[in-house]
Amino acid sequence: MASGSQNQPDQSLSGILQLAVENTVQSDEPVEREEMTEEKKEFLRNVFNDLHCDEAKEMKKTVDNIKPLLGSSHENDTLVKASLLEHLQDLCQTIDNASDFHKIGGTAILKELLNDPSSEVRWNTAELIAMVSQNNPYSQNVLLNHDMIPVLFDLVDKDDADIVRVKALYAISCMLLVIYLLSRIRNLIPITNAVVNDTQFST
Hints:
Blueprint: H1 13-22, H2 38-66, H3 75-91, H4 95-103, H5 110-114, H6 119-133, H7 137-145, H8 148-158, H9 162-202
Helix pairs in contact: 2-3, 2-4, 3-6, 6-9, 7-9, 8-9
């Protein structure tokens, strides 16, 4: 008698690939695809939830590894910080992870990193801020509430490294773009309503 566990999908990455292959029809002719079973849907939901949780844990681990190095000008510490910041940039490419970056305490290290002795650390931090704030109103509000804009403007105005100034300006633009567009939309709504009303009265 077969055990119940033999009927459960393999929850490894290879299991996901196998599931994808099994649900792919090799044909040039249009076919009617079989609807995915609830079991398979639940399996995929669990896998992607697990992946998201793992990435949040990885972000927290990376932030925790940076904290002891804050303010250090030692060459090896600088290389480690820059490498860890690049790793955070990779992790924060999705909106969910970018939002989680703040929830796991990432915001608290940003200002000190923007004032790091190394220009490589400073521009990588500005790049990370751009990454987490782009098209993400939640992240933008968090950064604005932590007064990140004045620090970035200070880098644009005073930093000796051109790449730091460029990245800081890029971060500012990512933080403010959605807020600017939303404010423009809010301003247009009364105008649009007035035009509609005038049109109705004139007909």
